[in-house]
TrEMBL record:
Keywords associated with the record: Glycoprotein, Membrane, Signal, Transmembrane, Transmembrane helix
Domain of life: Eukaryota
Topology relative to the membrane: Single-pass type I membrane protein
Membrane spanning stretches: 259-282
Coarse class of the protein's main subcellular location: membrane
Cross-referenced InterPro entries: Plexin_repeat, PLXDC
Similarity remark: Belongs to the plexin family.
Cellular component GO terms held in the UniProt record: membrane
Record protein name field: Plexin domain containing 1
Residue stretches in coiled coil: none
Localization (cell): Membrane
């Protein structure tokens, strides 16, 4: 059954959350809900904000579409348990309505495959104005971190690090065209340490014993290296009585200066050990707050960051209330394309 979304079909720059009937793997993450936007894209992130166009999207044609312009313009979707399809049907570009209606789809397959279908593209995509709204075609994913704004404040700033993007050549988008994205194996798909470290399908994977899943890492080792439980031999040694040790009478010649020097040396050794431990932790756990803080101040950041502040933005989106699209039910419509 194909469903017309009543609110999105009569709105501009609005987005609505929709539940999936299956787990959809997106960059290795299993998603059970997505957010459909009137602007020709699907937001795939878990945390919503007003700049949904920035990253974490599936965008068959992200542009300044206004479904509210015409009664014939609709945003519709269907879900058969193995395939979820979103269709922007006869939508027009804001302030360029005379250019004609666009009809296109994004199809999410249960196995992770994504397909973009284009039925009607009335004008070259590269001629669409991107001043008032971003113009993007492709995929993107990122992760978000919360960082304190200052040492004296409890407020936190949201920072998104985009680590991958696929952009389609917009000159290739014409009526009747289609693009298919096939997912590659990821470290996150491994369910055991042995599979994670020995699989020929992936490389550069490490095993997170706490989360019980694979992760991308530069560290090399065996499964035993990732196990936080002490070996039996080490644990049993604590249960045996200590061997007899012959002791000599205390040395009365040890001076106070010698004790101070020994304390300083021990403190320096401890400081070096903690520094090495911190460096190792930052490089193997890049998604927690302290490494975020340091990565922001590196001259060669691994990920470009996008900082969100309370300021006006032409491409901001507002998410409709949960359950708001349930009003008066949905309208069943004929299948298109």
């Amino acid at each position: 059954m194909e469903i017309i979304h009543g609110i999105l079909s009569n709105a501009h720059r609005q987005a609505a959350r929709v539940a999936l009937s299956f787990d959809f793997p997106f960059y290795g993450h299993q998603l059970r809900q997505i957010i459909i936007a009137t602007g020709g894209f699907i937001y795939m992130g878990e945390i919503t904000h007003r700049m949904l166009t920035a990253t974490q999207y599936v965008a068959p044609l992200m542009a300044n579409f206004d479904p509210s312009f015409s009664k014939n313009s609709t945003v519709r979707y269907s879900d058969n348990g193995n395939l979820f399809v979103v269709q922007w049907d006869k939508v027009r570009i804001k302030d360029r309505e005379a250019a004609g209606p666009f009809t296109f789809q994004a199809a999410l397959h249960k196995n992770g495959t994504i397909v973009f279908n284009y039925k009607d593209i009335p004008l070259p995509v590269e001629e669409i104005n991107s001043t008032e709204h971003p113009l993007k075609v492709g995929l993107s994913d990122a992760f978000m971190g919360y960082l304190p704004t200052s040492q004296l404040s409890e407020a936190k700033r949201r920072t998104i690090y985009e680590y991958h993007r696929v952009a389609i050549d917009t000159t290739k988008i014409v009526s009747g065209s289609a693009f298919e994205f096939t997912p590659l194996p990821t470290c996150l798909q491994h369910t055991s340490c042995d599979l994670c470290l020995t699989s020929n399908l992936t490389s550069g994977c490490g095993w997170c014993n706490t989360l019980q899943r694979g992760w991308i890492t530069t560290a090399k080792g065996m499964c035993e290296d990732y196990n936080t439980v002490l070996p039996e031999a080490t644990m049993s040694s604590f249960n045996h009585s200590s061997p007899d040790i012959q002791t000599s009478p205390p040395n009365n010649g040890m001076t106070e200066n010698t004790a101070i020097i020994a304390g300083v040396v021990a403190a320096l050794v401890l400081l070096v050990a903690l520094t090495l431990l911190a460096v190792y932790y930052i490089n193997t756990h890049p998604t927690v707050a302290p490494p975020f803080y340091l990565m922001q101040r590196r001259t060669n950041n691994y990920w470009p960051s996008m900082k969100f502040r309370n300021q006006g933005c032409h491409s901001s989106y507002a998410e409709v209330e949960l359950g708001g699209h349930e009003k008066e039910g949905f309208i069943e419509a004929e299948h298109c394309c």
